[in-house]
Structures are given as C-alpha cells and as structure tokens.
Amino acid sequence: MQKTVNNKAWLLVIPVFICVAFSALIPLMTVVNYSVQDILGPDQRVFVGTEWFLQVLQDDDLHAALIRQIEFSAIVLLIEIPLGIALALTLPTGGWRASLCLVLLALPLLIPWNVVGTIWQIFGRGDIGLAGYLVNALGLNYNYTASPIDAWITVVVMDIWHWTPLVVLLCFAGLRAIPDAYYQAARIDGASPWAVFRYIQLPKLRGVLLIAILLRFMGSFMIYTEPFVLTGGGPGNSTTFLSQYLTTLAVGQFDVGPAAAFSIIYFLIILLLSFIFYTVIQNLGKGPAS
Amino acid sequence: MARIELKGLAHSYKAIPSAPTDYALRPMDMTWEDGGAYALLGPSGCGKTTLLNIISGLIHPSQGRVLFDGKDVTDLAPQQRNIAQVFQFPVIYDTMTVFDNLAFPLRNRKLGEAEVRSRVHEVAEMLELGADLKHRASGLGADAKQKISLGRGLVRKDVAAILFDEPLTVIDPHVKWILRRKLKQIHQQFRLSLIYVTHDQVEALTFADQVVVMYEGQVVQLGTPQELFEAPAHTFVGYFIGSPGMNLLPCRLDGDAIAIDGVRLPLTAEKAQRARAAGGELQLGIRPEFLRCLAAPQPGAIAADIEAVEDLGNYKIVTARLSGQVMKAKLPEDETVALGQGWLLLPPARTRLYAGGRAID
Amino acid sequence: MTLTLEKIGMRVGASMHLEDIDLSLPGSSVTVLLGPTLAGKTSLLRIMAGLDRPTSGRILVDGRDVTGVGVRRRNVAMVYQQFVNYPSLTVYENIASPLRMARKLEAAEIDRRVRATAEIMRIDSLLDRLPAQLSGGQQQRTAIARALIKGADLLLLDEPLVNLDYKLREELRAEMREIFAERAVTVVYATTEPAEALMLGGNTAVLDAGRVIQFGTTIDVYHHPANLRVGEIFSDPPMNLMPVELAGGMARLSPELAFAAPSHMRGLGVGSFRLGVRANHIFLEPQPSADLAIPASVELSEISGSETFVHARHNGLGLVVQREGVHRYELGQPVTLHIDPKRLYAFDASGALAAAPERSLGAL
User: At residue A110, does pLDDT exceed 90?
Assistant: First the structure.
C-alpha cells in the first residue's frame, strides 16, 4: 500500500537517531579508530593497520579464554533451554496459581547482577555459606576458590539459577498460545504425552525458542559481572571468560589498541554465531521444499 | 459405525440450574441411527458445539447419559470412545509429512507397518491426497489440510462416528462445494455416522439426511431438509431456514376459524381446540415462495397494501403490508404485480398455525 | 456530491492493481463495486477515500481536483469487513467519536444525534456496552452508525457483511438499503455477491483484474452483460457456458446434440460461440417452451433452504441448475436438463456479448 507521503514524520525520527548515534555509532567508530592506530601519547598517533588484529589473534591467552567461553556457553545453553521448557510444561496454566509461580520464578531476574555474584559467593563458601557447608558436611570436598572444577560448577549453577526463569517465562507464553483444538485432536488420535510434546508443543514453540536461544547465547557469551564477583576469574584463570580477558587488556594493561581490535573481533563472533543460530532455527521449520 | 443415543442429556455451568436459561444445553432425548449423516444447525451460542463436544467426550455433561450402540460411554475419554473430530481450523502435525499425519492414529494404536501403509494409501486415494503423501503437511493449502484432518478420522477402521465442527469456515468459497461433494461421496461409500455442526443452512441441508435445528440450548426440530422447509415445527425454524425466512402474521381465533382483517380462514374443530389449549401468541406462518399476490380479490384473499417490488434478477420480492404486518412474497422473474391495493392469498395447504412459537398440526 | 474518476491507475511494484478506471458517480446515488476477490475493489475504495494516492489519473469531487488531498481533509466515511470499533469505548462513545473529534458541536447536540443514529441502526438499547460484549452483527451496526453520524458526503463500504451469519446479512442488507435511500449521500459498496448488488439497486461497476468491465444500472448490467466475464461474475451461481458451433440457423453443442437457434440469435452468422444460460433457466422437468434437452448425470445437489442447486455433468461439461424448493438427488442420478433457447445469451469468440434474450414482463 502506498501511504500518503508526510515529510514531517522525519522530524520525529531525529531524536532517536541522535540517541543511537551517541550511544552506539560514535563509540563503535571510536573503537574502530583505536583498533587501527597505536597511541603513544596525546598527540602521537601512528596508523598501524591490521597489526593489533594480528597480534590479538595470535595471543594464546585469548585462545584459551575463547575456548573456555565456548564451553561455558554450550554447557549453559544445553542445560537452561531444556530445563526451561520442562519447567514451563509443569506450571499451572492459569489463574492465581500460575501468577504466583511466575512471580516467584521471576525473582532471580530482578536481582542486580553483581548482587547475584555476591549471593553465590557467600552461598558457596565452606565456612559461612549454606550450600558450601552442606556439601562439605556430606563428605564431598568442595572449595570453589581452590578447585577449578568446583569453581566451574558454581559459576554454571549460578547462571542456571539466574537465567533459566527467562526461558521459562518465554516458553510459558509460547505454550499458552497453542489453541486447545490441537490438544483435543491429539487426545482423539490417542497420542501419548511424549508425542504431544514432540509433535505439537515443540514445533509450536519454535519462534519462542529462537528468541530464548539467541538471548541466552548472547547473554552467556558476553557474561562478565557475575563470574567476576564470584571467582574473580580464578582459581588462576580457570574461569576467566572472554569479556573479563578483554577488560583486563583494556583497563588493566591499558593496551587500548589490542583491546579495541579484540572488541571488534568479539562483536563479529557474536554476530556470526547469532546469525547461524537464527538461520538454522528458521530453516528447521521449513523442512524440505514441497 | 455406531448408533448414538442421548438420554436425559443436559449441560449447565451452574451447580444447581433452576431456570431454563441456566442451561447451555437443555434436557433432551435423541437417537441417531447408525450410518446416518446428521447436521446440528443453529446460530452462534445455540449449544451445538457444546453438544458435539459432549458426544466426542471432550466435555462431561452435567446430567444424562450418552450411549454408543447401547453401551454407556458418558464417563469414557475421547480416545476410548473411538470417535474422530474435524475442527474449525485445520489441525495437523506441522513437522510430519502427510503420510505420517494420516498414519499417526494407527501408529499410536500399535498397528503393524504393513497395515498402516495400506490403510493410509487407501484413504489418501479417496481424498485425492495421493500425490502429496511425501510432502510436509504444513506446506499445503487450507482445504488439503482439512482433508488430512478428515483422513486421520477415516483411517481408523473401527471409528464409531466422525464429528465436524464448522470445518469449512477457513476454506475459500469457490472450493467449499468441492469439499462438500467429497464429504457426501465418503458418506455414500462408507456409510459412517457423521455429525456436522454449522450455522450455515446450505452446508447443513446439503450434507445431512436429517437436520437438528437448535436455538438457545434446545433442540427445536429434527427432520429432513424437506420437512424443515415445508413443515417447520417452530417459528424459529421457519425464520432460520429459507431466504427470506417465513412470514409470520399475528392472528386471533374466532370460533373455529382464524380471523384476519375481516377474512375468515376456517380450521378443523380439532385444530381450533388444540390452538386454544396451547395458549400463547397465535401466528400464521407462510413462506414467501407460497404466498400469492393477486391483482383482484378472490375468496379467502386478504386485502393488503403492495409497497414495493424489487427485481433481484432471478426472482422478485414483493413487500406488502397486511394488517400492519410486513409480508414478503417471491415472484418468478417474469411476473410482476402493481403497487398499491392488492390481495394476498394464503393457500391452506402451505399455511401453518403456530401458538407460542410451536406448530399446531 | 458527484465523484469522478479519470483514468485512475494504481501500480504496486511490478503489478497494476488498477488500470484505466473511468467512473462518474452522480450525487446521492448508490454504486456497487462488484467483482471477485483481488479484483481491485479495496484498492479503488482506498483511492476514493484518499488513503492511497493513485499512480496515475485524477479524482474530482464536485469538479474540484482532490487527488493529492489526504483522507482527513476529505468528507468521507468508511465501513470495513472487520468490525472496526474502539475497543475501550462504549457503543455510545464509539458512535460519538467522529463528532467529538470534529469539536464543533455541543454535548447536547452530540447526544441527540448519537441517540437518533443508534435508533436507526437499532442498537439504542446497547449504548452502555463495550464492543467485546456485542455480537458480530451488533458490532458492525455500531461501525455503520459511526460512519453515518459523520454526515459525510461519501460513504464507502468494503464488503461490510461478509463476516456475518447469513441471516444477519439478509436483515442488515435490507436495512442498509432503506438507510441509503433516506439520505443524500453518495454510497459506494464493494461486494463479491451479485445478490447484494441486486438488492441494493442503484448502479453497478463490475471490476475484474483491476479494470471496470461494465458500468450501468444494476438491473441492466444483469440482463445485458457486455461480455463473458460480466456474465460469470454477475451470476450466483456463475452463468453456465456451453460452447457451440452456429451454422445455418442451427446450434451444435456436440455431434449428437443440435437445436434450432432462437430468433434473437438469427443475425449472428457462422462461427464458434459460447452460449450462456442462468441456473434458474434450466429445468429438470419438461417445460412447454424448453425445447433443448440435455442428458446429464448429477454430481452434487446443494440445498439452500428454499432452493436446490443441482450440479450436473454432460460429456465433461459442468452445469448448475437452480430449482425451487427442497429436492433430493442422488449422486450419479441421470437427469435431463431442459432449456428454453430463448433464454440463452450468446458470447462470441472474444467473449463479447453477441445476443441477449428479450425480456418480457407478464402481469398477473
């Protein structure tokens, strides 16, 4: 449909344009700027082209952090998505019971992220933490400041506690949108509960799951505050993920050039992987051409 | 195939219904013969979908029993009743091919693959879906999807009845009659018990051997399309079936005759007696097709004011005012009648007397 | 107010939604836009309203060019297929909304007009309800009331009854015709159903694939379709078409079937024609003047309450017969179709009307 052209509408876009420019475009341009220059002093800038990019890509520490990050995101996605779906399936479908459950589930999402880290830091301590004390009392030797495995477990459990409710909320909304007739038809066809899940609920949740997976992937891949507060990246660098490494590079060592170069690479990795996820999930629904 | 009986069946959303309006479905008794095609016809909110869902087992009635071939199935779940249902919008399993969709009910009942394959091919041929068996069900049009829904019911050899809940709602108008024809062919071929819910009189009258007309939760008439047209048992049936609906003329009883505007239309003494006993408002019903418009008075004709004659191409509609009441008559396209003073004749064979909405025979 | 469309065209992407539309609608008239779905009726209504701008041509209201004028400055009201009402306002507020937005009237006057219009649309007892509490028919009545109260010079309706039960459609159709007759407003009513066009009367513009293929008084267009397409569109069920060869005063339908060409077709000469006959002019019983008898077998009989439509097939040719009353036919039942040749339309090879039956009116 051709709408009547109203040029005054452009005036309404300008404020948004300015905000986006300041908060996103200009900083992005600045980062690109830093990534191709070596800043020796306030007035001494040398164009170095791709030097920083090459240096960063050959950094072994970066490779290690990247692998840790990928492992973390994979573990977290593989647990949170199925767990979220399962919880959403068990929730009551409506009324005050459903509202109560949803509110309780949403509480972890409302806590500031550094507070989340602090909660779990205390919770996991062997001396004053409830979980740490109980686990040690059961005979297991649990110490997240000393053992990398324990640290990983704690970080993963914390992330699951923090973010699974998001998946649950999205899946709950998606399940409510399925018309009753599908369930009725399944009953009449004699379908088992598993068949109902596989052939009706899961396909109809595809759109919602796409959002959940993308959000959790991006969130976990960029995770910073919670593990930093919980373990500080340790013991050693066993829980140092990409964003923490980047911060160390930029702020700790004040190597702005490499940090800027790495930021751009980081951004491109997330963009690429998100695009892959999106395309795969969208095409899962299409299937072979009829 | 099953004979379906409803005994004292009623449904109310209130715990203790006291007035007729508390019922979604008022108490009823009905028997539907094995292998018959029945339509439940009525406006939105008349209770037809509630009745359908009680028969399929998706709703448990608050009163009464449902019997299939004499066996009480009221407390059985849908899958135990062996019925199939086709819904308003196509319900298919998106991720499966057409073949798998049709095979689904059979596989759930643990039938051998060889038999599954033969049944599915048989049904697919009948529904003209043979070419699409390997395709994904989600890629097909709405009418093909409804055929798949129907196929899932046909594929089960022992299905007791197939229930349809306004299945042609989302189908394009020019394709509707193809699907209707297919349903009729299937009925002829298999002689299955089919129950079809609709608010469209064309669908109901084309499809069914017998039509159950419902209004405000109660069954108003059960009859063949011919009976409903020629002998409506209730003024609602007269109004709802036929386009335009039946004319209803308030009248009064004068001895053994009906008196309107000084003209007497005689009744048998017996009929007059029953009319008096029935109570309620008296009305004469006559369909526009049978109401005759005359230019000159004849015995039995009543004076009326011919207000308008509309040319509708195939036929004409005459609007006349008789005793303050608007009446419509249908004329063949080549005839016409002059405006102004005219006379209307109500042929006794085609005129029915109603008291309180119910026909007096 | 007179509305004139000159050479209106509407191109969207690569396709022409409307092409070469020339229409002249007199003031206080009812014009029906009749055509199948996707013929361009909605596009044309939107251009008349000013919601879209045509890619070529101009629109004149009372002689003034309004092609570029936006919808808010045109005096137009529109009713849609989907019952469009403000969901959070009561029926009263919905109907009052155009008057309140114009802000020219006092509250007492608005109240008077709202109640008067509600009474005309028979929803005066529902003024306190919200649209969600109303049935489909009542919601559409509210939408129509809202359009009427504006007192606009141009009232556009886009298939307003298509989402209603058929009984409600009948009632609303008759009411709307009376309402249009009482007001001095130019009405343009889009529909796919010939019956609605015939009931509304007035003029009809038949649209097909973005073009107006015929325009005239409704009953004239019905009895004298300019070509095949109009014959098909303006009949429900669609006009039956039979290909014949005309030669030497005889029309040949098939090797076994030939009949004497009727008088109105004598001047047609030799060639291939398609004969059109409406469903209600085919009979299943021998009639005095129906000389043409075609053997066929029944494919389906559809009962519509007061009529039966029989779909029959003769040698691969599908024909639909309309019969009064309710009758039962079995699938595959052999029948004979009797046609009075004087009722036949003849369309030449290009689809244009070559001969139309003479109309005779007999008084009772």
Answer: yes
Is there a single domain that holds both residue C48 and residue C196? yes
- The candidate with the shortest Cα–Cα distance to A72, out of A242, A213, A232, A237, is A242
Binary contact (B313, C362; C-beta < 8 A): no
Q: What is the pLDDT of residues C245-290, one digit of tens each?
A: 888 888 888 878 888 888 888 888 888 888 889 888 888 888 887 6
Q: In chain B, which residues have their Cβ closer than 8 Å to the Cβ of A191?
A: 104, 108
Chain-chain contact of A181 with B93 (C-beta, under 8 angstroms): no
State the DSSP string of B7-73.
EEEEEESSSS--SGGGEEEEEEEEEE-TT-EEEEE--TTSSHHHHHHHHHTSS--SEEEEEETTEE-
* C185 and C290 belong to one structural domain: no
Confirm if B170 and B142 have CB atoms less than 8 A apart. yes
The CA-to-CA distance between both ends of chain A, in Å, stands at: 30
Chains B and C form CB pairs within 8 A to the count of: 106
In chain A, which residues have their Cβ closer than 8 Å to the Cβ of B116?
A: none
Full residue range of the structural domain in which residue C331 is found: 240-355
> Over the stretch B303-332, which tens digit does the pLDDT of each residue have?
889 988 888 888 889 999 988 888 999 988
Give the model's confidence band at A2: pLDDT under 50 very low, under 70 low, under 90 confident, else very high: very low
What pLDDT is stored for residue C364 in this prediction? 31
Cα-to-chain-centroid distance, residue A13 = 30
pTM: 0.75
Q: Has residue C363 been placed in a domain?
A: no
Q: Where exactly are the structural domains of chain A?
A: 16-47, 60-286
Instruction: Mark which of C184, C200, C226 sits at the end of a domain.
Output: C226
Q: Looking at the domain assignment, is residue C364 inside a domain?
A: no
Of A4, A249, A65, B94, the C-alpha closest to C66 is A4
State yes or no: pLDDT of A234 exceeds 80: no
Q: State what percent of residues in chain B have pLDDT above 70.
A: 99
pLDDT digits (tens, 9 = 90+) for C137-167: 888 899 999 999 888 889 999 999 887 877 8
Q: Which CATH number is C180's domain given?
A: 3.40.50.300
A286 pLDDT more than 70 = no
Tell me which chain A residues have a C-beta less than 8 angstroms from the C-beta of C71. 4
Confidence of residue B99 (pLDDT cuts 50, 70, 90): very high
Regarding whether C151 and C32 lie in a shared domain, the answer is: yes
Q: Does A44 touch chain C (CB under 8 A)?
A: no
Find chain B residues with C-beta within 8 A of A185's C-beta.
85, 87, 91, 149, 152
Nearest CA in chain A to C44: A1
pLDDT digits (tens, 9 = 90+) for C170-224: 888 888 888 888 888 899 999 988 888 988 889 999 999 999 999 999 989 998 9
> What is the mean pLDDT of the segment spanning A279-290?
66
Q: A255 with A48: CB under 8 angstroms?
A: no
A128 contacts: CB under 8 Å, gap ≥ 6? A122
Identify whether the C-beta of residue A76 lies closer than 8 Å to the C-beta of residue A221: no
Q: Give C 166-195 residues with CB within 8 A of chain A.
A: none
CB pairs under 8 A between A and B: 61
Same domain, C185 and C263: no
Residues C24 and C85 placed together within one structural domain of the fold = yes
Q: Which of B230, B294, B334 sits opposite C361 (nearest CB)?
A: B334
Per mean pLDDT, which of A77-91, C42-56, C72-86 is the most reliable?
A: A77-91
In the CATH scheme, what architecture does the domain A60-286 have? Orthogonal Bundle (1.10)
Nearest by CB to residue A188, choosing from B84, B94, B140, is B84
Judge whether B272 and B253 are in contact, CB under 8 Å: yes
Residues of C in contact with B200 (CB under 8 A): 165-166
DSSP B233-258: SBHHHHHHSSSS--EEEE-EEETTEE
